[in-house]
Amino acid sequence: MAIWCARLSVDRWRLSLGRESDGSESQRGASGLETQPTVLIAETAHGPRIEAANDAAREAGARPGMMLADARTLCPQIQTAPADPAGDLAFLEKLAVWAQRWGPWSALDRPDGLLVDVTGAAHLFGGETRLLTDVEANFAKRSLAMRAAIAPTAGAAWALAHYGPAKAILGTQEDAMRRLSDLPVAALRLDGDVLTVLRRLGLKKLGDLSDITQGAASRSEAAARDALHRRFRNRKSPSANPLIRLDQLLGRVPEPLLPVVQQRLPLVQRRLMEPLRHRSLLDRVLSDLAEDMARELEGRGEGARRLELGLWRVDGEVIVRRLELAAATREPAHITRLFADKLENIEAGFGIETIRLRASWAEPLHSAQCDIEESAQRRGTSLSACIDRLTVRLGPNAVRRPVPHASHLPERSQRWRGPLEPDGLEHEPASQGALELYAKPLKLLDEPERIAVLYASPDGYPQRFRWRGNVHEVTRVEGPERIAPEWWRAKSTARLRDYYRIEDAQGRRYWIYRCGIAGDGRGGTPDWFLQGLLA
């Protein structure tokens, strides 16, 4: 069963606006939204663009995708509100969980639809017709506009819900092409550019496309079928290949769907008999909640990465403190110690009557035999515990860690990440290249520093160099090791680098390089730089 919420964004915004008022004000606000032209907009590089519009705005000429300036030309009194795609997606996920009352599982059909598996469940509601009636009644109770259809495949149900008659039911797969042949090719869930190509080819209905792909009565039809296969043969994405979409609609190839699985977040709370106003009592309740959370997480075999502490005051105000951890943990003492720093500026007012602790992000953390690291964790001296305490005290942007980056240039071979960011890298570390022939220096300067070098010939070894006012005699030289610039990023005038490992008379070792080659046509005399200190 496919459910299409055609006005999901507008309905959700209208309901959220109505909840801000009480009683008759809510009713007047809801009725006013239906008669006043209103659009939801998103900011773009070319100005505000309309993402959704209510019925009054559509009657005035506003359409999704239209620029707000064009819509104001048609309707100067149009009202605007910011669009919220993230909120719409969260609302759609809640609807998907709620829709599982009609089937064992449901899936999202972004951005405004659901797919529910009702196989073998229609008789529980008195048949497929009564099932659709029940769906329509339940959505009407929640003031949500929708269209629903039932078919043997997800593609056929989607096509009927969007372009078929109301409450359409497709009984068997054999009748699919006969019932769907008059629907437009847009019922195949294709990209806009693909639809444009099909219309230019004269394929406007599903029946036209089916006749070409299934058989050819004449030589011209056979040529058209071969041309269509050649045009879309290399397009693997279903939304860019009408042949794949047609096979999915007819059930010739399977269509994988990702079910929505409701996850119950670990949550513990205390409802106090008397309001709490003193910090010592708050710490005691927090310690008890941490113990309860540890037992809850241990039963699930998980550890918390993000915790949220909610404090409900008597006057109705809710105070929320969030905590992110460098590693999954369920140690009550560690959690209590970190939250203690975040409760310094809490204003209890007339008192706190409810305290709730929730783990909004948890990872698998299996029980293991106690080892040195776990003992250190309990004492609060492990590396992850140290990172957590520094992050809470100094802020999440004050603690950084180096990670490798795919670049053969030394100054770009690593980047800095926050301790709470995932360990996965955007790019794999650079493969074994020229830099791996010699060990890299233990210390790289923040910026390569220019040095004056005396050498016998333009391409010869350095014999003496001046750095920071001191002259160093070179006694040993190893190199050169040539590194080419990143041609896809640097300018065409970028010069090669020849790196040398050198040692002076005092035994100090340096990593220097010559930028450019004499006569390379990319500049004048090569420059020398010192970039690192060797052990």
**Biggest β-sheet: count, sense, barrel?**
6 strands, antiparallel, barrel
The end-to-end span amounts to 69 Å
CATH topology of the largest domain: Dna Ligase, domain 1
Uncertain runs: 23-31, 425-437
Order of strands, widest sheet: 15-16-17-18-19-20
- In terms of DSSP E residues, the strand content is 25-35%
Assign the CATH superfamily of the largest domain. Answer: DNA polymerase, Y-family, little finger domain
Number of E strands: 20
Oligomer: single chain
Give the CATH level 1 class of the largest domain. Answer: Alpha Beta
The Cα radius of gyration reads: 33 Å
Q: What global shape is seen?
A: extended
Total individual domains: 4
Helix content: 25-40%
Structure classification: alpha+beta
The mean pLDDT is: 83
Number of helices: 16
What's the architecture of the largest domain in CATH terms? 2-Layer Sandwich
